[in-house]
Structures are given as C-alpha cells and as structure tokens.
Amino acid sequence: MNKIKLPMRLGVGVIVLNNENKIFVGKRKDNPVDKWQMPQGGVDSGENYLTAMKRELAEETSIKSIKILRELEGFFEYELPNNLVGVIWKGKFRGQKQKWFIAKFVGEEKEIDLKTKNPEFIDWKWIFPEQLPEVIVDFKREMYLKILDNIKKFIN
Known about the structure:
The chain is 21% helix and 31% strand. By secondary structure, the chain is an alpha+beta fold. The chain has a single domain (3-155), classed as Nucleoside Triphosphate Pyrophosphohydrolase (Alpha-Beta Complex), CATH 3.90.79. The strands form 2 sheets. Strands 1, 4, 5, 6 and 7 form a 5-stranded mixed β-sheet that branches. Strand 2 and strand 3 form a beta hairpin.
C-alpha cells in the first residue's frame, strides 16, 4: 500500500476544559495500553466543522453542555504509522487533517457517559494541559504539541 498516494481524512477535534482549565481525555477502547486522547472524529459529507465537532463529542462522551470558546486557526494533521495504514478507515486514508475547537464544559460530570451507541472510550479523566503530550499515542504527539502551543495563551 503506497501511503503517499492516500488522501488525508477530514476531521475535527475538541479541547474540552473544566472549571479548573483541565482538559478532558478518554482512554481508547482499541488501545488498552495507557494512552488517552481528546474527543475527535471524522466530518460527514455536507457537515460543517462545528456541527461535526458537537456530534463527535456527543457520540463519544454524551457531553452536550458546552460553551464554544473559539475555533483554532488553520488545520492540524497527523500521519498514521505504517502498520496502521490500510487497517484504519478501511484503508482509504494515510492520516487526518483536523479542525480543532476549544470548549468549556458547563454541565455536571454525571452528564459524561462513555456507554454510547458505538463506544470509543473505556475511561475518562481531567488532566493538566502539560500532561497531554505524555498520554497520547506517539504518532499524534507532534500534532498535540502544536495544539497545546495554540491554546496556552488562551487557558492561562
């Protein structure tokens, strides 16, 4: 499979902050080692980024009580490692190009429920922003560092 010729999948992601400016992360069901990520996913045909982000967030976490703080400028990308190209997303993509948002969680924690129709996470927690690069899978680390750089001034 020639990774170079495959396109990037269009996606969205969201940095969900609690009242202490800690970030929501979920432990992926398909990666049982101690790796966590922020809610993210694909954009459906005809869907705008904001709608896609809200849908993905609800599908993965049941969270709907958010206040959108901002849309990050530009896009953030990651490439899949070679062993996952051809396996994930039915082999159609080499990575993701994502639009990211920052949102404040304004609900109560009992709203957070990972037992959704198609569960992606098996656990969740709030972490300090500086912990993000340490908990993510290696191939998304560079992208998370760039996102962190973009939100630092906003969350401090």
